Amino acid sequence: MAGVRTIEEILDRDPDRFEITIIELLEYTLGDDFVAAAPTGICACTNLTRDQIVTQIRAKGLKTSKEVRHVLDFKDKGGCPKCRPAINYYLNMVYPHDHEDEKASRFANERYHANIQKDGTFSVIPQMRGGVTDADQLIRLGEVAKKYHIPLVKITGAQRIGLYGVKKEELPQIWKDLDMRSASAYGKKTRSVKSCVGKEFCRFGTQFTTKLGIRLEKTFEYIDTPHKFKMGVSGCPRSCVESGVKDFGVIGVENGFQIYIGGNGGTDVVAGELLTTVETEDEVVKLCGAYMQFYRETGIYAERTAPWLKRLGFDQVKSVVLDPEKQDELYARIMDAKRAYDTEPWHEVVLNKEKRHIFEVEKV
């Protein structure tokens, strides 16, 4: 670390190396009296970390959560609310085609394909790729709202229309009447892609962003990620859809598209970091897929991209996703995984009587 003279400079340049140096100094000074911090497990059931569990899943060919908990000697062989969804995610990520998704391990929102509200009712938010709708969809939404006496119809922050206050037992029939796709607004997965009208209508627009937003959403929809994965596509640096605080943000400029990563607009606001500038839509889609897959393969379950990027280091992530060979490999893997997420969840429930039973209410 040539040229570094202060603690602040070390922390700014390489905080992980600073931590390692402190540990080495303590070991040297204290000798046998030094006690290293115990590794933190993913939950109280185990001392194993995320990386250790995923490594063992691959090495031992573990294909079910039950196998993972027994072979890796979890204290609670039935698991807990923290490790059950995490292990299910890791298995889906490692074996996208060979692991049967364990629905019972998912949170209620994902089991019911709808967000549960504070009063026990649910919201129904259909897909409108790129924030685009049409007269037929709007008419159906209005008819459903009247038929089921929906107490609130609201434009969402993700440029969709949400129906709020829906009873659990009415969900399948509402989905059938709407005849629209789920916007997956309830899960730890790729979410709707916000986009502005772009060059097609806006006098400031530099790129056709609505089309690109729709393409990104269609390419990566329903894919599980460690936490929700939000994207935004803006047609100019004014960034009307706040692309700078998205997990993956695209801002159109005269010579192409600026790519920002690791942004977060939630309770802990984080500005995304400029990764690179690319010239074509194809490059945007491929880079998005590689970045998302790297996050899928290295992220801790329930970890957003902002802390993940900080944990791995921006330079490390950049070196991986911008390396042509690694980018090709990552993109190929996410496209392979995408085949496991081709089923639209609402229609799957509507067409399958067995899947509808969890929505039924027992009458006494």
First and last CA, distance = 72 Å
- The count of DSSP E runs of length 2 or more, i.e. the number of strands, is 9
Name the beta content range: 5-15%
Biggest β-sheet description: 5 strands, mixed
Uncertain stretches of 5 or more adjacent residues:
none
Q: Strands of the biggest beta sheet: in what spatial order? A: 5-6-7-8-9
SSE ordering: HHHHHHEEHEEHEHEEEEHHHHHH
Coarse shape: globular
Quaternary structure classification: single chain
Helix-strand makeup class: alpha+beta
How many helices does DSSP assign? 15
What is the averaged pLDDT score?
A: 92
Radius of gyration: 23 Å
Helix share, percent: 40-55%
Structure, described:
Residues 116-179 form the Nitrite/Sulfite reductase ferredoxin-like domain. One of its GO terms (biological process) is nitrate assimilation. Residues 42-92 form the BFD-like [2Fe-2S]-binding domain. There is one protein chain. With 364 residues, the protein is α+β, with helices and mostly antiparallel strands. It has 15 helices and nine strands. The strands form two sheets. It has a five-stranded mixed sheet with strand order 5-6-7-8-9. The chain is globular and about 75 Å long. It starts with 6 loop residues before the first helix and ends in an 8-residue tail after the last helix.
